[in-house]
Write a structure and sequence with these properties.
The complex is a heterodimer of chains A (528) and B (369). Chain A has 528 residues and is α/β, with parallel strands linked by helices. Chain A has three domains: 147 residues, no CATH class; 156 residues, Four Helix Bundle (Hemerythrin (Met), subunit A), CATH 1.20.120; 168 residues, Translation initiation factor eif-2b, domain 2 (Rossmann fold, 3-Layer(aba) Sandwich), CATH 3.40.50. Chain A contains 21 helices and eleven strands. In chain A, strand 5 and strand 6 form a beta hairpin. In chain A, helix 5 runs antiparallel to helix 6. Chain A is globular and about 70 Å long. Chain B has 369 residues and is an alpha/beta fold. Chain B has two domains: 199 residues, Rossmann fold (3-Layer(aba) Sandwich), CATH 3.40.50.10470; 123 residues, Four Helix Bundle (Hemerythrin (Met), subunit A) (Up-down Bundle), CATH 1.20.120. The longest helix of chain B has 30 residues. The chains are: A alpha/beta (528), B alpha/beta (369). The interface between A and B is medium-sized, with 17 and 16 residues. Chain A: Belongs to the eIF-2B alpha/beta/delta subunits family. Chain A: InterPro entries: IF-2B-related, IF_2B-like_C, NagB/RpiA_transferase-like.
Chain lengths: 528, 369
């Protein structure tokens, strides 16, 4: 755990030094401090936190300290205006002395009013971080994304549950390090949701359908999920009519937000979906007021169509056209899982008459590679199939490694299906070039250093269950053993050192160029 | 060279096509006979004299007219023969000539005509990176320059021609800029290793010498053209202590080297360089001994290419003279260039400034996308 503390610590330091960059820095700052918050609420690690915080003030530059104080002052002022005089008095004492913070905030947490929660055990500096985590809401909300829900934060989880449509039940025996990620018991809520389908006014049926498909795993893969979501929204917009005394741009945004939160409950959003939602919301707010409702709806629908065709479908084709130039005769191409773009690349190269062989590396529990294998073999491409356990054995045969990505982050880090990093690292060790294929709409300006802070947890049962192996069911009742935690991570990150080339719709780029693309083309992506 | 070409028992039925680019380089920079050195020594003048003589020769020689190729290639070849003119300059001069002789009446027509000419040029010698990069660059200028659209056609046309003719100066200015920028990296008492004959590197060293810096240069021999000999000759004429070593002695002498200076035939999107054969191994040796590798290259050599490995390029072959006949049944590696990946390069000294390899892609994105 110490190691991970070190990691989060670095994040915080970096971010505070970045503070001058307005949105970026702030966003990172909240993220960084959120991560710290995660660890701070663990009562048994209090001593660790304290030792860490001792180092904090010395290394953190003076300026963010000041701004923190300022922000706090603003917050206090706002609250004072809002709340009763007595409460305001309490808080001013809190401002004066750090020792008093504990005493003054405890009753407030009991009331569970403005602040989400303040854990009683927090040392003073950590509570300082806390104020960061829940910033003065009103003025910040606009330019900042909502801080991600931290699922080890009991109060917030309870609060979120009240709102939610999907009745997810929390899984037991969660892995300690990943408690901040949502983890639900799988397969319990589907019948319940299905019965709710005909309840009026709940959710638009098409959105509901997509949500259920996410939940049951019928739709997977970044592009497929994104397209399904956009099409559902398109349908929802088609059926939408502005209620009386409301403005379309406001009401529709709220509506979309509620859809999105429903979808998040079904399955956490992928970064590609996040970007698409950002685009759609942007389009809605940028609608000219003069437009009539039907015109506005038509314009939004055509925007969605354009996004799907330009950013996803055509982008895929462009990637394919670039990638086939890197396939020579007698190549052995290795891929992992079943990335849709890579499959298109193989198909196209095969159509062009290139002679190559494919090695499909697969892994439990999803075994998506089998589908890819079946389709490739049906087309007459010679294939080898193996599991990731054998990747170091098979790698010396390969001449190119083609991988798909869920997202590419600003530091060139590739966020992708779990196992991708291992394949890329093995390829690097063998000197085989690694080509990451990723549409530019999946790029994100975030920076991530490990796969812990943001990730998705899959069903632990999927790992513990062994297909057709009654004799191998050693983990049958694992949930009853509280000492046993099973972790089924969905994503991992591949550092940019292990990526030789990024193939995007903007051409073939080194991973160091991601920030340039994000900077130069964000505007175009969002069509501001 | 000629007897070798005849005796070379090439096992492949069709001998690989010879790269025109490297042929020209060899003609301009190579020492093909011992007579050349004798001449150069006798002339007592430095290499400019020899160059001028060569230039006179080249100018006197009528431009070759390959049967099917059109005017643009003749023009290009004419310019290409001048030793001081870079290949990119020749390409742009040729394109400017196309504009001059064009009978197009609208910008669009002119663009199409230019596109055809540049495609023809590019396909004429696919191995020359600076040729294709320069063609792309000029096309960019034609299609991207916004004020061209608002001008009268004739004015726009003359502006383009002017631009093309100025390119030679731009190229020379780029070299001067690079030489100036690199002075910070050359310190008194340093030893540098250079590979092959690069006009930019020569310019850098010339300026350093005229700034009265004290340094020593190790020149590789630069087989098969022995371009290193010409380089060392030029450096010795400038009064710089210079030592020639055979290409295989690079690792042996690396511990006394403080920095490696190389030019580049092309700078690719990854930030790596494509350069004369042997650059990669020098960069590898330097990297493993923690010596900095500096690349001096004009920005018009930046190309939208991304080789993944050595074989991932258009093959560029050239005849190799071993001095003795190659035994029968033995294959000869005739590739003229190699690719040095960016992780082995320290800095690129360009007229855009001193860049780390990763910036190349950023510049290319801003230029071409």
């Amino acid at each position: 755990y110490l190691q991970h503390f070190a990691v989060t610590y670095i994040v915080v330091l970096r971010n505070t030094s970045n503070c001058k960059v307005p949105v970026w820095g702030k966003r990172l700052l909240t993220q960084g401090s959120m991560i710290v918050g995660v660890y701070c609420v663990e009562p048994n690690k209090r001593d660790l936190i304290e030792t860490k915080n001792e180092g904090d003030p010395t290394s953190v530059p003076q300026k963010p300290k000041l701004s923190k104080a300022e922000r706090r002052a603003i917050q206090e002022a706002q609250r004072a205006a809002k709340a009763a005089a007595k409460e305001a008095g309490l808080k001013s004492t809190a401002k004066e002395s750090d020792v008093n913070t504990k005493i003054s905030k405890q009753p407030k947490a009991g009331k569970a009013s403005l602040k989400k929660d303040v854990t009683q055990v927090n040392p003073p500096v950590a509570s300082d971080k806390k104020t960061d985590e829940c910033p003065p809401d009103k003025d910040r909300k606009k330019d900042l994304p909502q801080p991600r829900m931290q699922f080890d934060d009991v109060h917030r989880v309870v609060k979120a549950k009240k709102r939610s449509v999907v009745n997810q039940s929390e899984a037991q025996n969660r892995v300690e390090l990943f408690r901040h990620l949502p983890q639900y018991a799988h397969g319990t809520q589907l019948p319940d949701l299905e019965s709710k389908f005909f309840q009026p006014d709940l959710m638009h049926p098409s959105v509901y359908k997509v949500g259920l498909q996410y939940l049951s795993g019928d739709i997977s893969g970044g592009n497929a999920r994104c397209i399904a979501m956009l099409l559902a929204f398109r349908e929802a917009i088609n059926d939408y009519s502005t209620p009386a005394e409301k403005i379309l741009s406001r009401d529709l945004t709220a509506k979309i937000s509620s859809y999105v939160s429903f979808l998040i409950e079904c399955r956490p959003l992928s970064i590609s979906m996040g970007n698409a939602i950002r685009f759609l919301k942007n389009r809605i707010t940028k609608l000219p007021l003069a437009l009539s409702e039907s015109e506005a709806k038509a314009s939004l629908q055509s925007d969605i169509d354009r996004f799907i065709s330009e950013k996803i479908i055509v982008a895929g084709k462009v990637i394919v056209s670039h990638a086939v130039t890197k396939i020579r005769d007698d190549d052995v191409l290795l891929t992992y899982g079943s990335p849709s773009v890579v499959e298109m690349i193989f198909d196209h190269a095969h159509e062009l008459g290139k002679k190559f062989r494919v090695v499909v590396v697969d892994s439990r529990p999803n075994l998506e590679g089998q589908g890819l294998l079946r389709r490739l073999v049906a087309k007459g491409i010679s294939c080898t199939y193996t599991h990731i356990n054998a990747v170091s054995y098979i790698m010396h045969e390969a001449t190119r490694v083609f991988l798909g990505a869920s997202s590419v982050l600003s530091n060139g880090t590739v966020y992708s299906r779990v196992g991708t990093a291992s394949v890329a690292m093995v390829a690097h060790a063998f000197g085989v070039p690694v080509l990451m294929c990723c549409e530019a709409y999946k790029f994100h300006e975030r920076v991530q250093l490990d796969s812990i802070c943001f990730n998705e947890l899959g069903d632990p049962d999927a790992i513990s269950r062994v297909p057709r192996g009654e004799s191998l069911s050693n983990l049958k009742n694992w949930a009853e053993n509280e000492n046993l935690h099973i972790l089924n991570l969905k994503y991992d990150i591949t550092p940019s050192d292990y990526v030789s080339m990024l193939i995007t719709d903007y051409g073939m780029l080194p991973p160091t160029s991601v920030p340039v693309i994000v900077r130069e083309y964000r505007r175009e992506h969002v069509w501001i | 060279m000629e007897p070798d070409a005849a005796q070379n028992p090439n096992p492949s039925p069709v001998p690989p096509p010879i790269s025109a680019y490297y042929q020209t380089r060899a003609e301009h920079h190579a020492v093909v006979s011992s007579d050349w050195l004798a001449h150069a020594a006798a002339a007592a003048a430095a290499s400019p004299g020899a160059d001028a003589a060569a230039a006179a020769d080249a100018a006197a020689a009528p431009p070759p007219s390959p049967g099917g190729a059109g005017g643009v290639i003749e023009e290009f070849n004419f310019w290409r023969r001048k030793p001081e003119a870079a290949e990119a300059v020749a390409a742009i001069m040729a394109l400017a000539a196309v504009i001059r002789s064009s009978r197009a009446t609208t910008m669009m027509e002119l663009e199409i005509e230019l596109k055809k000419a540049s495609d023809k040029l590019k396909s004429w010698d696919a191995t020359s990176i600076s040729l294709s990069a320069a063609c792309d660059l000029f096309m960019r200028f034609v299609t991207r320059t916004s004020h061209l659209e608002h001008e009268k056609f004739d004015a726009a046309k003359s502006r383009l021609i002017e631009r093309g003719e100025k390119f030679g100066e731009i190229s020379l200015k780029a070299r001067k800029t690079i030489a100036m920028l690199s002075q910070d990296f050359i310190y008194d008492g340093c030893t540098m290793l250079v590979h092959g004959y690069s006009r930019v590197v020569l310019e850098v060293l010339k300026l350093a010498a005229s700034n009265r810096k004290l340094f020593r240069v190790l020149c590789t021999e630069g087989r098969p053209d022995r371009t290193g000999l010409r380089m060392s000759n030029a450096l010795a004429a400038l009064g710089i202590p210079v030592k020639v070593l055979i290409d295989s002695a690079v690792a042996y002498s690396m511990d006394e080297v403080d920095m490696v200076f190389v030019g580049a035939d092309g700078v690719v999107e990854s930030g790596g360089i494509i350069n004369m054969m042997g650059t990669y191994q020098i960069a590898l040796v330097a990297h493993s001994m923690n010596k900095p590798v500096y690349v001096a290259a004009e920005s018009y050599k930046f190309a939208r290419l991304y080789p993944l490995d050595q074989k991932d390029m258009t093959p560029a072959h050239r005849p190799i003279d071993f001095g003795v006949p190659v035994p029968t049944g033995v294959e000869v590696e005739t590739s003229a260039r190699d690719y040095t990946p960016p992780q082995y390069l320290t800095l690129l000294l360009t007229d855009l400034g001193v860049l780390t390899p990763s910036v190349v892609s950023d510049e290319l994105i801003q230029l071409y996308l």
